[in-house]
Amino acid sequence: MKKILEQKIRTIIEELQQSGVLPLFVVPEIRVERPKDEQFGEYTTNISLMLAKLVKKSPMEVAHIFQEKLASEEFEKVEVMNPGHINFYFSDAYFREIVTHINQKGSGIDYSVEEKREKVMVEYSQPNTHKEFHIGHLRNVFIGSTIVNVLRKSGHEVISANYIGDTGTHIAKCLWGLTKFYADVNLDTIENKAEFLGKVYSEATQAISDNPAYEDEFKVLQKDFDAGDKILISLWEKTKEWSMDEFENIYKQLHIVFDAYFFESIEEESGKKLLPELLKKGIAKQSEGAVIVDLEEYNLGVLVLVRKDGGVLYGLKDIPLAKEKFEKFNIERSIVVVDVRQSLYFKQLFKILELYGFHKEMIYCGYEFVALKDGESMSSRKGNVIPARVLIERVTESVRKQFPESPNPEMVALGAIRFGMLRHSSVSKIEFDVEMSVRFDGATGPYVQYAYARTAGILRKAEESGFSVSEESIIVLSEPLQMKEIELIRELSKFSSLVKEVAETYEVHKLAHFALKLADKFHSFYNDCKVIDTEHRDVSMARLKLVRATKIVLGETLGLMGIDAPEKM
RNA sequence: GCGCUUGUAGCUCAGUGGAUAGAGCAUCUGGUUGCGGUCCAGAGGGUCGCAGGUUCGAUUCCUGCCAAGCGCACCA
Q1: pLDDT > 90? residue A162
Q2: CA A451 to each of CA A59, A81, A130, A404, A516: distance values in angstroms, whole numbers, following the listed order
Q3: Is there a domain that residue A151 lies in?
């Protein structure tokens, strides 16, 4: 619709120029938008404000010229308002058409033929083995999986990828801690193995930073490990599996599926093979015993690829990884969801790849950290992180306490957590508030889930009262449409452009805000308009269609965010 | 020191080159012989960090300043 209006305006301008009503000028970008206030209609354009100066007429004068030309049957009216906005109001027939369309074709997403579909890879989660999977990692998973869902919904072919940090300094520290403090312990009998590793890691980090002698010991072990010491390698392989098992459990609980797995330990080998070429091309060089890439001339500092003791660092692993993504998987776009603190690093990485002659579309989506409200700041090195598992348990417990009759408290809890994190834009730091997140009122997951359950409840009740909701029938709705009906339909109609927008901007929090608004509008409609009324079957049928459309769109929105849409709760 | 990000209602957060800056929580006032009130309607509450600049128009773009967070060679 937007595009059609924009095109129409362009045509009008060109006609007016040819007929001499308007002088010749370069036509500026024409933008038709949703007005921020609903009293200004469905669509609005400020084209007359933009043209006023060019044509040396007042904005109002220009607007009136357009008004005449733009009148058409889809619109109830085309209105001009100070200082020169042109607003489009739809007729009831158009609103009814929207409801019919959603009932017949689903959420209203139409894949226009000219839309470019791409093969895209989204890398996210990237947990480190031997460390706790904490609530910051949860945010990453929520953002990443939502981006995957949205891209798929908008027609792209998406590979979701995970990149496991199964080697590096943190592993060596954990292994050192194990051999130093737990050499006598039979590791196989330990109960929560992944949790244990996280604990050993933070103990080891603490000990090494407190005691210079330990530091030296650790350095020796790290060197042995890098050199392939058999005993260390076998300990690494064994403990790595513990972490991997834990990750799989979490992903399963969150309904997360990855299509591809990459491992740092494997990329490390590729990186080593690539190094001579980087040195030969003059991209990398020796400095202070280490191998670095000097990016000072691009104002990007210096990146160390190889430590002076020969240890391979993350940068050298990410270069072959990027190549592999594009060359092996044939993708056109690569997206990486990472902690915002790595943004300088990713700028460096992309620049290095560019210098290497690798010109591809690579994007990183940064997000800020998560803390628990009233908790101290977290760091897995300090060991004061809140593990994902603990948060899920705590929120589930809170749901149980507040709503003892809830049939599936964990589902509500997971919805509450996902929504609680996804409703914040990526740049904002989250202080997760357990109590607030599980409330049924306010901006919460349960509130939206409740709205969905209510739509389901109405449809169930309707079937019991002898209405056949799924049968195809013409939408009547009341004549004329009630304000609350229009407001609800208007909201429904925004879904497809929202999905498109999120697919381009990765601003996943907009889905959460849309879901809230839609739930709001539905509740408001529900309060005003009686749906099931055996006295007025035609109105009931029509409103049931509207409820069904709401259920479809709300369900899909929740689905994109990875939140369960319950039929009952 | 340099760089990045943020600064909007008491609190938590949205939003925008234009039309009276929006939600939720909290506070106050109404609404149920209910299609699940776990809801709805309404009220109060703002110099959009400060100062300049660009513009017909800036909370939004630019510059400076202030404040907070983060990053800046051997962690990822």
Answers
A1: yes
A2: 44, 36, 41, 19, 9
A3: no
Tell me if A191 is assigned to some domain: yes
What pLDDT score does A476 carry? 58
Residue numbers of the domain that contains A75? 2-90
Confidence band of A12 (pLDDT split at 50, 70, 90): confident
- Which pLDDT belongs to residue A39? 80
By CB neighbour count within 10 A (0-12 exposed, 13-18 middle, 19+ buried), where does A275 fall? middle
Given a cut of 60, is residue A383 above it in pLDDT?
A: no
Where among A60, A90, A120 does a domain terminate? A90
Which domain-ending residue is among A61, A90, A119?
A90
For residue A104, pLDDT beyond 60 = yes
Nearest nucleotide to the CA of A315, by C1', is: B76
Whether the beta carbon of A422 falls within 7 A of nucleic chain B: the reply is no
Q: Is the CB of A54 under 7 A from strand B?
A: no
Could you tell me the distance in Å between the CA of residue A14 and the C1' of nucleotide B20?
36
Q: How far apart are CA A318 and CA A352, in angstroms?
A: 10
Mean pLDDT of A347-363: 96
Residue A479 pLDDT level (bands cut at 50, 70, 90): low
Q: Identify the CATH number of the domain in which residue A48 sits.
A: 3.30.1360.70
What's the domain count of chain A? Answer: 2
Strand B: which of residues 200-259 in chain A lie with Cβ below 7 A?
A: none
Query: Which residues in chain A, range 115-154, keep a C-beta under 7 Å from any nucleic strand B atom?
Result: 126, 128
- The reply to whether A61 falls in a domain is yes
Lowest mean pLDDT among A14-23, A41-50, A106-115: A106-115
For residue A35, being part of any structural domain is answered with: yes
Q: How much is the pLDDT for A343? A: 95
- Chain A, 441-500: which CBs lie within 7 Å of strand B? 441-443, 446-447, 450, 453-454, 456-458, 461
Positions of strand B less than 7 angstroms from a protein CB: 3-6, 12-20, 22-26, 31, 35-41, 56-57, 69-76
Spatial distance between the Cα atoms of A99 and A109, rounded to a whole number of angstroms: 13
Q: How many angstroms separate the CA of A517 from the C1' of B21?
A: 18
The first and second tokens of residue A172, run together, are: 């060596």
CA A355 from chain center: how many Å? Answer: 30
CA of A510 to C1' of B48 (A): 21
Predicted pLDDT of residue A377: 45
Q: How far is the CA of A23 from the C1' of B51 (A)?
A: 41
Give CA–CA dist A94/A449, Å, rounded: 29
Q: Is the CB of A39 under 7 A from strand B?
A: yes
Q: Where are the beta strands (DSSP E) in A63-206?
A: 75-81, 85-90, 119-123, 157-164
